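Hi V.,

You were right to ask for the full record rather than a summary. Here it is.
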Amino acid sequence: MRTSIRTAAAIAALTLTAAACGDDSSAGAPAADCVAGQTDGDLLLYNWNDYMDPDIIADFEAEFGVSVVEDFYPENEEMLARVVAGGAQYDVVVPSDYMIEIMREDDLLLPLTRSAIPNIANVDEDFTDPPYDPGLLFSVPFLWGTTGLGVNVELLGDVEPSWALVFDPEVAGQLPGRILLLDDARETMGAALRWLGFSPNSTDEAELQAAADVIEAAGEWTAAYNSDLYADLLISGEVVVALGYSGNFLDAFGDDERFAYVVPKEGATLWTDNLAILATAPHPCTAHTFLDFILRPEQGARLTNYIYYPSPNAFAAEFIDPEILEDPAVYPDAETLERLQFLQDTGETEILFTDLFTRARS
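Predicted structure:
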């Protein structure tokens, strides 16, 4: 479901949007003149594959008398490229945290009319002032999760949750050809930076080179770099440790106790996917009403129960399946949360992340 590949983020931002900014009449678009519950046409939704409970869409259509036309993308960069190219018009998109920052800075998003989204008050305070969109001026959080390790505990037993499982020659080196890393420069380089004790958002060239060296050395025991099939390859037994996203693992594991998801003790990525309205949205008022609908506690809970990612809605808990709510792999405890950090757009350093990662994994 969530397979965002950040390796092209900087290139997408620095090339595609550069071409658009020269003639984009939506640059600096004013907020829409909308009120709560207003609609101005059908909703055009551009979302990740399999990232919405279809019953939620059906209920929105029934309540507001509109249709929702859905289109899907597999990664943030494809979404960005299509939005910039203007080949199709959409109202609402679902960018990840760092992509919100890129799109916001390039005037691709419509400032939110907060009075038209009264349920924005339901957003948990931990998500009301994110670094990628301070004050939630252009987006609202949709779902969140962590990036960590899926482990075959039947074969490895109780392991210490550490990046040593993929980077330490004394640990991972004993599992040749049984380790998988994401084909994602920011996530995989970020993991290596944490293993070395550095920030995942480092812009220090020496630190980034050191992380690339770690990944290159790990090539001796790494079976694949994959951002789509990591959970499947773990379950099939082709690998025994895989780097990936929490909800994808948990959805794939189900009740299978042979596998576990862990957040490494050195720290990991906290990410959010968000709802945002495009500056060129043909139906901005319907879009605001859709955001407000999703921010109802009941809808936030339905999403979590359907997808196994935690809800950023402060009042959704009473409607969430207790087994999900009490699972620390879904909802990390306070100690784990302290070790989590957003990946942030590092500007032109994104290109260095990409170049070093590409060379290290080749």
